[in-house]
Amino acid sequence: MEKRELIVDSRYSAFYCKDLPYLRVFLDAKLDVRVERAMKREGGNTKDADKLKEILMNRERDEYQVGMNLFGEDYRDSKHYHIMIDSSDLTIEQEFNCIRARLESN
Description:
The protein is mainly alpha-helical. The chain has four helices and two strands; from the N terminus they run αβααβα. About 50% of the residues lie in helices and about 10% in strands.
């Protein structure tokens, strides 16, 4: 089999890919930071913040419930990851550097 490099972006990759040799990274940020980032991406205004916060909280609750129903475990548990990064105060470059440092340490 040909060796290939890929990125799996999924809340449940720790479960789907558990038998594969890969680096498991969980990126998260505080809810208010995620709302602010989403508003910037979508061009929203401050009136939209409360609605967006509710959408994000509902989505997170639903993703948790799906994980519990499918796998019987919380996908956010640190035991499923090599690295957990709170990106609230980080730039994308800093996030990348954290992950790269972990890859280079092996």
